[in-house]
């Protein structure tokens, strides 16, 4: 049994491992090529997060999904580059919105060069993704546009918050379906589609990716509270400091409203205060790390990962299917 990728994904078949490793290496080359500009400063800024590394979760899914058709089809690597460029572009924009100072263990672009450069660099990456996408055909362009619309809608809904009477947890899960699930689903869809897989297989893998994407983001929510910066590659409690209501906090507030325990109400009051103060932020983080709401968020992560695993049932048994199942376990493991 061998290992591939940053998740420690076990791949039992040497041919599959070789295909995936070669595909991911080609994606790295494609990312560096796609982020080159005639202006050296733009190249430096655009390659900042590429060179910082990352999980390459979406390209990995493209290549695993491609195993259900022709894994050597010419559109697979470009499609993987497109989804990763799109993801990277959103990170530049997210860090501006969150005022983050660390991303993937390095200084964030907005911290290094300012918000304007970070936003424009994200736009540059979107443009390069679109350029590559144009060669993959009108169906691919439409699918990516729909996913991007969902991604932006999810971000706007997160910013606007739930409407009156809407359960904040349900609203948040819908947000994640757009913000994260949409692009992960497209990664699986592109891999299967570009490989020429049967349409039913494409549909199954798309549904799998949607659920896995939500599980992946929920695991990030848990990591934002539970991990240190070495583990997550970004400053712990970033969402907390910015007042972004991730799932552990939403569960805390629901429990406080339902049961009225003094310690829960006091923690909510702390969260409503000024968490730019380092001492208050550290206190809130420490209390959330031992609160049952964090375990509840972990259970939700497991539920979505299990739904992703169940979605794979119609696919024929093979090493690629086993690897996709193991990704569900890997995502859950990240959440502890």
What characteristics describe this protein?
336 residues, mainly alpha, two-stranded antiparallel ribbon, 4 strands
Characterize the structure shown.
This protein is an all-alpha fold. 74% of the residues lie in helices and 3% in strands. It has helices at 14-34, 40-46, 48-51, 57-65, 76-98, 109-113, 115-134, 138-160, 168-194, 199-226, 229-232, 238-241, 247-259, 262-272, 278-289, 292-311, 319-334, and strands at 2-4, 9-11, 102-103, 106-107. The strands form two sheets. The protein has a two-stranded antiparallel sheet with strand order 1-2. Helix 4 packs across helix 9 (168-194), helix 5 runs antiparallel to helix 9 and helix 9 (168-194) packs across helix 10 (199-226). The longest helix has 28 residues, at 199-226. The radius of gyration is 20 Å and the shape is globular. The mean pLDDT is 91.
Secondary structure elements and their pairing?
Blueprint: E1 2-4, E2 9-11, H1 14-34, H2 40-46, H3 48-51, H4 57-65, H5 76-98, E3 102-103, E4 106-107, H6 109-113, H7 115-134, H8 138-160, H9 168-194, H10 199-226, H11 229-232, H12 238-241, H13 247-259, H14 262-272, H15 278-289, H16 292-311, H17 319-334
Antiparallel strand pairs: 1-2, 3-4
